[in-house]
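Let us work through a complete example step by step.
Step 1: write down the sequence.
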Amino acid sequence: MSVYAYAAQQGISSLNLLMGGQNAGTIGAYNAAYQAEAQRGAARSAINTAESNIAAINQDTILTNAAIDLAQKEATANAAVSAAAAGVSGGSVDAVAYGIDANASMQKQNVEARADQLTEQQLAAVNSGSIALSSVQDQPVPTMMDGLMTIASQVTNQDLKTAKTFLEEDGPTMNVGANNDSLWYTTA
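Step 2: predict the structure and record it as tokens.
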């Protein structure tokens, strides 16, 4: 395709773009922009989900510790009632109460350790989502100037010589093909 036909085609495309039309370049750019926004949305969603999971982990830890405390108090009370019913007092009752307290403390430590581990995993997910969010880059939308620069980059020395002959007096004339799909020149 000659540079003139290409220029005419690009000019029509640029006019179409100015009038609100679309071409493959703008559709591609908007698809890329949509994809970038979808990636941002997915990253924000991952961050939000991880933050919600951290809140749920904290809430679960509090409720589990409360359940452990309740079970500990119930076990201690049952042991005291059983000891009183049997007429036992002193060091053996205190040893049972100490064992119940120790078990409850170990359960709480296990719950806290598991909660810390899950929280770290969710914080890693937040960090990963933040990195993904910051790494999404917008694709530039092609402008009319981009089209004109593309046309200018296609001009060769031969095209300049041909243009010079068009400008000369009594130079060749430009003819348009029957289908308006080709350009050529003839000498007078």
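Step 3: interpret the result. Residues 61 and 67 are 10 Å apart (CA to CA).
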